[in-house]
Amino acid sequence: MERINILLIEDNEGDIILTQESLSESKIKNKIFIVKDGDEALKFLGSIKDATALPDIIIMDWNLPKVHGREVLSRIKNDQKLKSIPVLVFTTTPSNSEILDVYEHRANCCISKPSNFRDYVNVIKTIEDFWLNRVRLPIKKYQ
Amino acid sequence: MTPINILLVEDNEGDIYLTKEALGQDRVSNRIFVTRDGVEAMEYLNKSKSDPEFPLPDLILLDWNLPRMNGKETLSAIKADVSFRYVPIVVLTTSAAERDVLDAYAGHANCFITKPVDLYKFISVLRGIEDFWVSIVRLPKTFNRQ
């Protein structure tokens, strides 16, 4: 099986390390690209000229510095080249209206970020089991 | 955990039975509403705007190869209506065609899963959907907007 490229857009160092650690144990070969704010994320995605080098899946925090997650998501989902990439949005203790906002901007799903270590690792493992093992990700060559 | 309402759009009786078995009697008592093609699904969703007998679903499981109105058309109709376009849609189908996968994501399906032919693998997939979409994901709380 081919390697899965994951783009992680996250400013919290602890969460970055936990995500990397959890995914490094995956049976599915994957590579994580890390950007730490919304501006960097848009620049990273904009710099990819070859569609086969695009991420297969994006995991992003909603409250991002510089450019907010809402804007980043909206730009991704309105870009012909990027819009099919599944985007998983992490929020911290979201209200119902915030969850709705995330879906209205066409996130593929909204996950509330657990505050303790064990729950966080468990969420990453469940994401891995579901999105890397069970879900069919879009095939890049058609994009 | 609050029980959630799942709209299943599926014409295969065996798959309907298995899905109800796998998702309906677990830690969370999900309520599953069955429609057998896209036309029926849209009728259900339109009724959900006003009739409490047809609750707006928290999650939709959509087969791709459906009679009368297929999965692609149904997805597009759901995502075009502001009343329910935010409801997550899991495409669950025997199709493994790459064109279908891309059409589904381009049409804003929330995820695409190829249904395994093997019975036990199919049940395992349904449990995986429950583990992720019901236990981990924050679904939009549909009842607040009715």
Order of helices and strands of chain A: EHEHEHEHEH
Side by side, the strands of the main sheet of chain B go: 2-1-3-4-5
Which residue ranges of chain A are poorly predicted, with pLDDT under 50 across at least 5 consecutive positions? Answer: none
Number of strands of chain A: 5
Poorly predicted runs of chain B: none
Strand content of chain A: 15-25%
Quaternary state of the chains: heterodimer
Q: What report would you give on this structure?
A:
The complex is a heterodimer of chains A (143) and B (146). In chain A, 40% of the residues lie in helices and 18% in strands. Chain A contains 5 helices and 5 strands. Chain A is globular and about 35 Å long. The two termini of chain A are 20 Å apart. Chain B is α/β, with parallel strands linked by helices. Chain B contains 5 helices and 5 strands. Chain B has helices at residues 13-24, 38-47, 71-79, 98-106, 119-136, and strands at 5-9, 31-35, 59-62, 89-93, 111-114. Chain B has a 5-stranded parallel sheet, sandwiched between helices. In chain B, helix 1 crosses helix 5 (119-136) and helix 2 runs parallel beside helix 3. Chain B is globular, with a radius of gyration of 14 Å. The two termini of chain B are 21 Å apart. The model of chain B has no long low-confidence stretch (mean pLDDT 90). The chains are: A alpha/beta (143), B alpha/beta (146).
How are the elements arranged and paired?
The complex is a heterodimer of chains A (143) and B (146).
Chain A: E1 4-9, H1 13-24, E2 30-35, H2 38-46, E3 57-61, H3 69-77, E4 87-91, H4 96-104, E5 109-112, H5 117-134
Parallel strand pairs in A: 1-2, 1-3, 3-4, 4-5
Chain B: E1 5-9, H1 13-24, E2 31-35, H2 38-47, E3 59-62, H3 71-79, E4 89-93, H4 98-106, E5 111-114, H5 119-136
Quick recap of the structure?
With 143 residues, chain A is an alpha/beta fold. Chain A has 5 helices and 5 strands.
List keywords for this structure.
heterodimer, A: five-stranded parallel beta sheet, 40% helix, B: 146 residues, five-stranded parallel beta sheet, 5 helices, 5 strands, 16% strand
